[in-house]
Request: fold
Amino acid sequence: MKRRYMYQTVLFLLLVTISFVTFENPYTKDYVTSIKNVPVQTANDDPLYNRIVENAANYEKEPKNAKIDKVWKKMPGLNGLEVDIKKSYKKMKQNGGFDEKLLVFKEIEPEVKFSDLPAAPVYRGHPEKEMVSFAVNVAWGEEHVPDMLKTLNDGDVKATFFIDGKWAQQNLDLVKMIKEEGHEIGNHGYNHPDFSRLSSQQIYEQVKRTNDILEGITGKKPKLFAPPAGSFNEEVVKVVDNFEMETILWTVDTVDWKKPSKRAMINRVMKKVDAGSIILMHPTEVTKKALQELILNIKQKEYKMSTVSQLLTEKR
Reply:
């Protein structure tokens, strides 16, 4: 009896002890919350993510404001570059490691844009923009235009054709062809006068008449004006600005109207061309023959070629 009593007493004490012990219920709210708060590895903990963050500044570029340059007059700015950390991390994570070629950038606009500047002549794009433009002034040479268009198309190049209003009236099909090929069309006056010798009213009439003709053919009003022979004055720039248009000159002149040899023309351009250049040319025999090689040489410098309007944007 005594031994049996001892067993009962021990069992009783054991049951009493167990009743006071609290076990964590895995389905309670507090427990679930505690599980959620357990730290897990995030992108910020990944050495790859941190490496991108630490090196981002080495690849970023500050935006450049548009300005009125002492030499080049009205000059566009250039967007800055900022590394998109999250997108860069995602691409590199999928690839398995850091690779600067997989960096993703977003462009940052400058405070002062080209459109913010007052009226002034334009001679070039931004010198850090890896792009050049062909400005083709057309008042004659219609026999060479189709071949030039084919060469531009074969090279996947878009140019800006500044067209004389009178010439446009006489060559409707060529104007339409230029438009259909995706090139930009600008105003070159009506009958190739010396704009520096015209009155304000005469300048207005030349620009307005040609705008109406070109818009009637293409359905689009020109945004750019190139004075014949590059002859202009402040009044020309002012009147053109009133049309919400830019007065366009050039950085590099092919001087193709002087009938240089093909080699002489190409050498002249390649010695002077750099990022942001506007290259002046006309529909001439030598330009027609030199254009393909000129395009190839410019591409070897790793410059893109597009319209003048594209060159004057802040986009990289």
User: Anything to note?
Assistant: Residues 18-41 have pLDDT under 50 and may be disordered.
